[in-house]
Amino acid sequence: MLQKPKTFTTDRLDSRREFLAKIGKGALLASLGVFGAGCEAADRGLLSRGLLPIVLVDAQEAGLPKPDMLVHSESPFNGEFAPHLLSDDVTPTERHFVRNNSGVPERAVTKDLRGWKLVIDGEVHNELALSMEDLLRFPQVTMEVVLECAGNGRSLFSPEVSGTPWQRGAVACSEWTGVRLRDVLQAAGLKPSATYTGNYGEDLSNDGSEPFSRGIPIEKAMDEHTLIALKMNGEVLPAAHGFPARLIVSGWIGSAMQKWLNRIWVRDQVHDSEKMSGYSYRIPAYPIAPGDKPPVEDMQIATAWQVKSLITLPQPHLELNKDTLIKVRGHAWAGENRIDKVVVSTDFGIQWQETQLISPSNRYAWYHWETELTLANRGYYEIWARAYDDTGAAQPFNQPWNPKGYLGNVIHRVPISIGA
Ligand SMILES: Nc1nc2c(c(=O)[nH]1)N[C@H]1C(S)=C(S)[C@@H](COP(=O)(O)O)O[C@H]1N2
Ligand SMILES: [Mo]
Question: Ligand 1: does its nearest atom lie under 6 Å from the Cβ of 98?
Answer without folding.
Answer: yes
